[in-house]
Automatic annotation (TrEMBL):
This is DUF2570 domain-containing protein. Residues 56-90 form a coiled coil. Keywords: Coiled coil.
Length: 142
């Protein structure tokens, strides 16, 4: 039992020493941080301070910046809407032109089986590829 108390006492002493060492090290780190912060504060105080504009000037400047940004956003939105409208018009015209260029044969309206479906889809894909080539070349009348 005596050995138990010796080991327990030694363990408690080691834990206490580690705890006190940790506390001392933490206090040292806090002291060093305080020294660094004091030096930084002193260096900021030594810098020349810019003249602060009045609150009205700040508000006017902010309002001007927001107005400019708002105008730019509005202009960008209008331009994007025009581009989208033009894109939709071209896409619609292209779809109508392809519908005139290629119509499915009556044989492909109802598929007889998987092989027949694949054959009909291949015909349509080849027609689409040829149409795209003609469209890219500038042909628009079909």
């Amino acid at each position: 039992m005596n050995v138990f108390f010796q080991v327990f006492g030694f363990t408690c002493a080691v834990v206490l020493a580690l705890f006190l060492g940790n506390v001392a090290f933490t206090k040292y780190q806090l002291y060093e941080a305080q020294v660094v912060l004091t030096k930084m504060a002193d260096s900021f105080e030594s810098l020349p301070q810019p003249k602060a504009p009045s609150d009205n000037q700040n508000l006017r400047r902010i309002i001007d910046q927001l107005s400019k940004s708002n105008r730019k956003l509005s202009d960008d939105l209008i331009a994007a809407q025009r581009e989208l409208k033009a894109y939709k018009a071209v896409k619609s015209a292209k779809q109508k032109a392809f519908a005139k260029y290629h119509t499915d044969s009556e044989d492909c309206l109802i598929f007889d089986g998987d092989a027949h479906m694949v054959e009909c889809q291949n015909v349509k894909m080849r027609a689409k590829k040829e149409f795209e080539r003609l469209w890219a070349a500038g042909q628009r009348v079909f």
